Amino acid sequence: MAVILYVYAITRDAVTPDCEPIDPAGRFDTAGHDGLFAVFTKVAEEELSQEAIDRRAGDLEWLGAIGYRHQAAAAALMKQTTIIPLRAFTLFSSEEALNQYLHEHRELLQKTLGRLEGKCEWTLRIEFDAAKFSEALVQRIDSLRELSSQIESASPGRGFLLKKKLDEEKKRASRDAEQQVVSEIERAVLEKLSCDTVAESRLDREGAFPQINVLLNRDEESKLQELLAELVPRYDNEGVTLALTGPWPPYTFANA
Known about the structure:
This protein has helices spanning 45-48, 50-55, 60-78, 95-104, 106-116, 130-140, 142-153, 156-193, 221-236; strands spanning 3-11, 28-33, 36-44, 83-85, 91-92, 119-128, 196-200, 211-217, 240-248. With 256 residues, the protein is of the alpha+beta class. The protein folds into two domains: 3-117; 120-248, Alpha-Beta Plaits (2-Layer Sandwich), CATH 3.30.70. The chain is elongated, with a radius of gyration of 24 Å.
């Protein structure tokens, strides 16, 4: 039976995680030397060939189990050493091919490990209450504030038309205003923590709420929590809710 390697992460040390590999019958192993290693599990090629993956693309239970075990392995490794977490389904044909990859990309991989050393990723999710944020736009945008002022002193007929115009202008302004909020929050993070960030809009996240990914030194978590406590009341009246999750393996920053 032909085997291939399922690789979880590139690491600084030759360590293996204390958790279940993607194949419960398998085990973790390492390849590499001199401060540059890869953690992998040997799997049957027929189980994870491209054809097999395509065939099971709609099997959410199977995909979810692999994703969960992959994430658990990366999280466990992160507690032991500096890692470059790899995406799920990173496969190599053999240990020789994996060692060749480590050799050919040694300088870049070691540089990336140095940049990620002592750091982890946090995610600041920014959620918007559509109705409440729509009302708050009037205070954010001068042209909407002017329209709102005109409505207050307009006759009933003119007021009706102005209200329709105001609603249309709010819809047009909403996306830009939302991105402005994300930029404000990202700027606040950078000013307080002087760290690397990657902001993802709804467009980047296929319609999901925007978020800001933060690469943070492990000893600065309390500063991020302090900033969150400051930002929550600042944006609450606008219908903006902030949620912080982490620490995560630094997937967003692994290839930056």
